[in-house]
Amino acid sequence: MAFASRCHTGAFTLAAFLALIWFAFVRVGRQRARLERSPVACRTAWALGAALFVHCTNYIGLAYYGQAKFVWYLLLALIASQVAAPARRRTTAARPLPARAGGAARPVAAARPG
User: Fold this and answer.
1) CA distance to 20, 49, 83, 89, 110, per residue, from 42 (Å)
2) CB 3.0 to 4.6 Å from 9: which of 3, 13, 56, 75, for a disulfide?
3) Number of domains the chain contains
4) Which has more pLDDT, 73 or 6?
5) For 35-84, what is each residue's pLDDT tens digit?
6) Whole domain around residue 26: which residue ranges?
7) Rounded to two decimals, what is the model's pTM?
8) Mind spelling out the 3-state secondary structure of the chain?
């Protein structure tokens, strides 16, 4: 139903709608590949792709209106705003300072990123 209504609105609207879906899948795929080392971020990208696929299959037979449109736009916004996580800097473990003349060595706090 919804896909048929896209066909009746014109060729440009249908092409723009299909391009939107295409670029959303491309974005999710690239993000998933980029974040492969981070299991949580990779699963998040995969879940967004799965949700996008479900919405695409729903578009074949369902008409989106009201709250369903909100969920569709929310999914597109989540995909567009997904960014790659910055690489974390390694922190060193606490290491003792050389012994002072008047006392024992003190541990040094671990270096913080930033």
Assistant:
1) 22, 11, 12, 20, 29
2) 13
3) 1
4) 73
5) 888 888 888 889 999 999 998 888 877 777 778 888 888 888 888 888 65
6) 2-81
7) 0.61
8) CHHHHHHHCCHHHHHHHHHHHHHHHHHHHHHHHHCCCCHHHHHHHHHHHHHHHHHHHHHHHCCCCCHHHHHHHHHHHHHHHCCCCCCCCCCCCCCECCCCCCCCCCECCCCCCC
